[in-house]
């Protein structure tokens, strides 16, 4: 199956919502994206900034994967921080996700990115997927949250 990468825009919003809604509806995320207005604002957060990078994976003429994130310009190079990275569940389990990682990595090389970064749940199947595809866990980094309510 031939896979292609393309820049995404808000014209792709409906299909992006379908992919994210189905990919993250199950455990451990249990995301419920039924509110289209809220999802639109979420996409504005991810795609509506000067440093946003929104990439899509095209297979058989259909958008089947997304990589949504932002760039940070560090002293040692550009980091592409992936906020959402997924494959439509109908296309999972076929090696397409691993190919998608490689396509995004190649895109990064071509655009002088120093590295790709992301976060996931340690208990999620994605954790092992990312390890298998060359990502490494940053052992000294800690992810903090502070509730505001």
Question: How would you describe what is shown here?
Answer:
The chain is an alpha+beta fold. The protein has a single domain (3-132), classed as Aminopeptidase (3-Layer(aba) Sandwich). It is 31% helix and 28% strand. The chain has 4 helices and 5 strands. A 5-stranded mixed β-sheet has the order 1-2-3-4-5, sandwiched between helices. Strand 2 (52-59) and strand 3 form a beta hairpin. The N and C termini lie far apart (48 Å). The mean pLDDT is 94.
Features of this protein?
149 residues, Aminopeptidase, 4 helices
Compact summary:
The protein is of the alpha+beta class and 149 residues long. It contains 4 helices and 5 strands.
Which SSEs are present, and which pair or pack?
Elements: E1 3-7, H1 13-23, H2 36-47, E2 52-59, E3 62-74, E4 77-87, H3 96-110, E5 113-117, H4 125-132
Parallel strand pairs: 4-5
Antiparallel strand pairs: 1-2, 2-3, 3-4
Strand content range = 25-35%
Per the CATH scheme, the topology name is Aminopeptidase
Gross CATH architecture? 3-Layer(aba) Sandwich
Could you tell me the number of beta strands?
A: 5
Strand order of the largest sheet: 1-2-3-4-5
Low-confidence runs of at least 5 consecutive residues = none
Structural class: alpha+beta
Distance between the termini: 48 Å
Major sheet description:
5 strands, mixed
Output the radius of gyration: 15 Å
User: What spatial form do the alpha-carbon principal axes imply?
Assistant: globular
Order of helices and strands: EHHEEEHEH
How many domain units? Answer: 1
Whole-number average pLDDT?
A: 94
Q: Treating each run of at least 4 consecutive H or I residues as one helix, how many helices?
A: 4
Task: Supply the CATH class.
Answer: Alpha Beta
Query: What share of the residues lie within helices?
Result: 25-40%
Any idea what the CATH superfamily is called?
Gcn5-related N-acetyltransferase (GNAT)
